Amino acid sequence: MRTSNPALGDNTFNLHAAQGEESMSIQGTVNKSAILIAIIIFAGALSWMQFVNGGPVMLLTIGGAICGLITAFITIFKKEWSPVTAPLYAFFEGLLLGGISAMMESFYSGIVIQAVMLTVGTFVALLAAYRSGLIKATENFKLGVVAATGAVALVYLASFVLGMFHIEIPFLHSNGWIGIGINLVIVVIAALNLVLDFDFIENGAEAKAPKYMEWYAAFGLVVTLVWLYLEILKLLSRLNSRD
To answer: Considering its fold, how many domains does the chain have in total?
Structure first.
């Protein structure tokens, strides 16, 4: 079993609840995911209000990005800490998303609600397709998504490194149609990662992983949703810039 989501790797569910202990369930993971999303919304509202009131929104946004990254790595390497670190990650990511969303909304009115609706719609559509069997996480499907996601990660890493030397990768940050096309492809890749996440959550429940893995699985799902939302927000901003 593979997934390109770093939080849900091959050995993620090679754990089992001790005899007599409650194990991971799909419903439990759904509940934990809802809690994490609620935390993101709460923290995002705090960051948004700082932007509206002229507060230190950049400090919250950058601080949220850095602390969120650190907390994510801690969660990945210390899965048993996820009942604490996953909510912390959600809070920090909420600060990041709230700040970015507020700034984008100031440029393009209505863009945030559009991005949220598209993210939710994509999630619901893919979940329905997965549950109905229209999309199956076969080995070839997994390999394709993993390879595509790895390619995106390498391009973004190269862009970051080259950016320090004031060198840009052609079209990657362009508002032209090629740049928009690249962005759309990345949105599709991010969305397909949700299918792999659903598959791993289902496998974790079937494997009777420890109860705390519900928090870890919810964290992994939220990682993908955050990425998807940011890519959709970027895509919409590029489309709006052409009006």
So the answer is: 1
